[in-house]
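Chapter summary example.
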Amino acid sequence: MKVLRALLTSAVFATAGLLAVAGSAQAAPPQAVVVEDRILPQGDYCTNFAVHVVVYSASSDEHHPGFATGPGYAVVTNTTSNKSIRYNVSGPGTFTVNPDGGFSVSARGTNLFWTTKANSYPGVPQISYTSGPVSFTVAGSGKTTAYSHSGATTDVCAALS
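The structure predicted for these 161 residues follows.
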């Protein structure tokens, strides 16, 4: 259940995003804070290296639980080479907790999602940066049981190699 909760938290916060819109008459944007900071172990995600993922967000919507949107970004780092990539994860997205303890995500825009090789949906990279509509369902066991995406996908492990 702890892994599932972490996956749910990850999916929720990975749909937070960065909206870099500022004008001279606008107030300064809120400071981004870390909402997720984790190491994805070598072999479970990327074959040859572990990945450090840090997700930052400057917004929260306490009035709309189950909905996440910008501003925010994610920094992913290959812990062997120290190569890092910063991703705009603007979402937005919704998530629903299912009766079996799993969850469903429906997102648009740009997002970063990850799951272990053992729990991944066939053909989906373990760490994916997506743009466009994406939806998936994760069973209470942690296994992704449904996945649909129309848009571009970046295999983050390949990008960090």
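To summarize the output: Confidence is low (pLDDT under 50) at residues 1-28.
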